């Protein structure tokens, strides 16, 4: 039975990935923070370690010798990275080095895929692809760029390592600190009379939003390719935060969203990247990958889930 090791197994992507791998009959091991109370998918063997503890990470890889290693863990907020840039590098960039070194030294049969981010492209013109220059404009993007370059360096040394350069991907499992889930939760609560307004930042900011399980499928495909490589994963379609708001409130049965939305400049990013839109041609050609869920359905699924949670709690 193949063995997979997932860092960040309790997050959105880790949860969907664990479900998919378990359904295939893969033996799944996952990394969680010491003392974590987060829910782990049933069937996953749990290992506790701090993602910043390189010795622990290397020891786990040496002991498990996984066939597939999915590195998803790390600080995941662009905004929070400005508050703690050093911690962001320690949690998001440096662990990639520890895992790659462990594979090279102790588990050469392991195939690794690193969850990178469109934030590595910064202000590069859209659309971006694998040839777009790396020019991050946030500590988070810089930390992700470090991981990207480490993967490339170790791949040159014979390690089967790939980066999935993920654009924004959402689902009902997205934490509420992310603007998309903040919007869908608010729309559901307003529809049920539990709150009146939601405060947001730049409604004109545009993003390439996709369905998280699709992006997990791309990572599974990437790690199983005979030849490792980097792949941009995104829909190529742009929508503004305003578009997301309109779709979410409509899905909640609210036609006039404007009285319920307040904007506040303090929610604007210090530096907002230019338009991020994926050119996922390589993923389509080499992985056979394409998104399966369109933007309106993505938003509707998230709102329906949040409405259901509210109704179940009454």
Automatic annotation (TrEMBL):
Keyword set includes Metal-binding: no
EC identifiers of the protein: 4.2.1.47
Named cofactor requirement(s): NADP(+)
Gene3D superfamilies: NAD(P)-binding Rossmann-like Domain, UDP-galactose 4-epimerase, domain 1
CDD domains in UniProt: GDP_MD_SDR_e
Pfam family, one: GDP_Man_Dehyd
EC class (word): lyase
Keywords: Lyase
InterPro entries: GDP_Man_deHydtase, NAD(P)-bd_dom, NAD(P)-bd_dom_sf
Domain called NAD(P)-binding: residue spans: 5-302
Family: Belongs to the NAD(P)-dependent epimerase/dehydratase family. GDP-mannose 4,6-dehydratase subfamily.
Name of protein: GDP-mannose 4,6-dehydratase
């Amino acid at each position: 039975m193949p063995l997979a090791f997932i860092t960040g197994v309790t997050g959105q992507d880790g949860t969907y990935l664990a479900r998919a791998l378990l359904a295939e009959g893969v033996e799944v091991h996952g990394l969680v923070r010491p003392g974590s109370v987060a829910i782990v998918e049933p069937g996953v063997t749990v290992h506790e370690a701090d993602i910043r503890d390189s010795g622990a990470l290397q020891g786990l890889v040496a002991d498990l010798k996984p066939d597939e290693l999915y590195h998803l863990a790390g600080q995941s907020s662009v905004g929070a990275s400005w508050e703690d840039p050093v911690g962001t590098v320690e949690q998001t960039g440096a662990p990639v080095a520890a895992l790659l070194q462990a594979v090279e030294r102790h588990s050469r049969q392991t195939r690794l895929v690193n969850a990178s981010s469109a934030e590595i492209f910064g202000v590069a013109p859209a659309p971006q692809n694998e040839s777009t220059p790396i020019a991050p404009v946030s500590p988070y993007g810089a930390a992700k760029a470090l991981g990207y370059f480490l993967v490339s360096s170790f791949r040159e040394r014979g390690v089967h390592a790939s980066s999935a350069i993920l654009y924004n991907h959402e689902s009902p499992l997205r934490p509420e600190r992310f603007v998309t889930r903040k919007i869908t939760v608010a729309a559901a609560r307003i529809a049920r009379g539990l709150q009146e307004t939601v405060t947001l930042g730049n409604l004109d900011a545009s993003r390439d939003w996709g369905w998280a399980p699709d992006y997990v499928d791309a990572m599974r495909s990437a790690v199983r390719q005979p030849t490792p490589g980097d792949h941009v994963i995104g829909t190529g379609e742009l929508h503004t935060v305003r578009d997301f708001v309109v779709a979410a409130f409509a899905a909640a049965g609210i036609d006039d969203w404007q009285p319920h939305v307040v904007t506040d400049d303090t929610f604007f990013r210090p530096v907002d990247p230019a338009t991020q839109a994926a050119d996922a041609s390589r993923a389509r050609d080499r992985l056979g990958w394409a998104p399966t869920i369109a933007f309106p359905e993505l938003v509707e699924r998230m709102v329906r889930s949040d409405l259901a949670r509210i109704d179940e709690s009454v």
